[in-house]
Specification:
This protein has 200 residues and is α+β, with helices and mostly antiparallel strands. The protein is built from 4 helices and 13 strands. The strands form 4 sheets. A 6-stranded mixed beta sheet has the order 3-6-8-9-10-11. Strands 5-4-7 form a 3-stranded mixed beta sheet, with helices on one face. It has a two-stranded antiparallel sheet with strand order 1-2. β9 and β10 (155-164) form a beta hairpin.
């Protein structure tokens, strides 16, 4: 019997009430009519609010710049899930893979060992997740680089973190305002003030 029938719910809202022990990452691909970009954190479904213009523009700026500068063996993707473990599957705003890998065309996630960089653009409803929960989980799963992007007077500020393998935690390596210039995980130079231009 499905969870929906067991709880007397309409099939299309089967995700509305979790089973005992919470949802699993496998459930994300099976539950009908989940809202787009639903994440799983500690067995609970996290629904995402509509995207603001700042958020969309930052994603576009970073995706184009990273795609242009990432190593040929890497791939840059927006809003692709990372399955961290059975109870956690999250969707960074932008990710860079370690190496290009042909996935099954229907696969909806990467494993953490395939990820070089995860980027989260902070929204009003995601502050705690993006500042505390997700970085901790990315680090615990071994994702080597993490960026958190905040908004300051309409412009992005990028907080850059690198994994300390000894502590399995991120350390902040820099805060970047107008221009992001890095040598790791590969040489990167991004004009952050280009966010409001039609072409970065």
């Amino acid at each position: 019997m499905s969870a929906a029938r067991e709880y007397g719910l309409d099939e299309q809202y089967e995700w509305a009430r979790p089973p005992q022990g919470g949802w699993t990452a496998d459930d994300l691909d099976r539950l009908p009519n989940l809202p787009p970009h639903t994440e799983l954190i500690d067995g609970s479904l996290v629904l995402v609010s509509p995207q603001a213009a700042f958020h969309a523009r930052v994603m576009k700026l970073l995706q184009i710049a990273l795609d242009d500068q990432a190593p040929d063996e890497s791939e840059v993707l927006p809003e692709m899930s990372i399955r961290l473990d059975e109870k956690n599957q999250v969707e960074p705003d932008v990710l860079v893979t370690q190496a290009y890998e042909i996935l099954d065309p229907h696969q909806t996630w990467y494993g953490p060992q395939q990820i070089l960089l995860a980027v989260e653009v902070v929204s009003p409803d995601s502050r705690a997740r993006d500042r505390e929960v997700k970085p901790r989980k990315y680090a615990g799963a071994g994702v080597p680089h993490f960026w958190r992007v905040e908004e300051d007077r309409g412009l992005p500020v990028v907080y850059v973190y690198e994994l300390d393998c000894a502590t399995e935690a991120y350390k902040l390596t820099g805060i970047y305002h107008d221009k992001l210039t890095l040598t790791v995980p590969f040489p990167i130079e991004i004009d952050l003030t280009a966010i409001n231009r039609r072409r970065p």
